[in-house]
Design goal:
kinase; alpha/beta; 7 helices; globular; transferase; five-stranded parallel β-sheet; four-stranded mixed β-sheet
Length: 187
């Protein structure tokens, strides 16, 4: 079965940085570019229209969609098919419902990683990278914490504190876990 990685965590927890470190470790790891319907940042997304979203919904090809920062973000089946054909997709999520929808709605051997950092670190990192919407990102941090508290039964394959674990160390931990899982799956 194809392997994929889900990185869950609040804004500025290090999802982009850890994904970059995974790609440097092994080029098979690639960030999954979600569809985005809205304005603002376009890098790392496949921009789409509301009409395209309706077509995907009608075809049953939306695995998960959420709205945040005045935009809609979509994990779509055709996009995942292409990502798995190219390598090991790394999907960024900030909602446990999204993690569960992906694990339950798209057949793959998913490794689910919780990346965490304190609220003050999110604020510092967001301001440091020049985000114009740091306040909204801090609201999202609070929502992520509430999401975790509301789902104490959520099981993580790996939990990484990104303040104390460097991105390259995180990438090696994730890669090692995938290698071990592949060995178990083929034994």
């Amino acid at each position: 079965m194809s392997q994929g990685v889900i990185l869950y965590g609040p804004p500025a927890a290090g999802k982009d940085t850890v994904t970059e470190a995974l790609g440097e470790l092994n080029s098979r790891y690639m960030q999954f570019p979600r569809l985005k319907i809205g304005s603002g940042k376009t890098a790392g997304y496949r921009m789409a229209t509301a009409g395209q979203l309706r077509q995907l919904e009608a075809a049953g090809d939306v695995v998960y969609a959420n709205s945040r920062y005045s935009s809609t973000y979509v994990i779509d089946r055709p996009g995942l098919d292409g990502a798995f054909a190219a390598g090991v997709p790394v999907v960024h999520l900030g909602q446990i419902d999204g993690v569960r929808a992906l694990v339950d709605g798209y057949p793959a051997d998913w490794t689910v990683v919780l990346l965490w950092c304190p609220r003050a670190v999110t604020a510092d990192r967001s301001e440091g990278r020049g985000d114009a919407d740091t306040a909204a990102r801090l609201e999202a941090w609070e929502a992520t914490r509430a999401d975790l508290e509301a789902h104490p039964d959520m099981v993580w394959d790996l939990t990484v504190e990104t303040v104390t674990t460097k991105p390259d160390q995180s990438a090696r931990l994730i890669d090692r876990l995938l290698v071990q899982r592949a060995g178990v799956a083929t034994a």
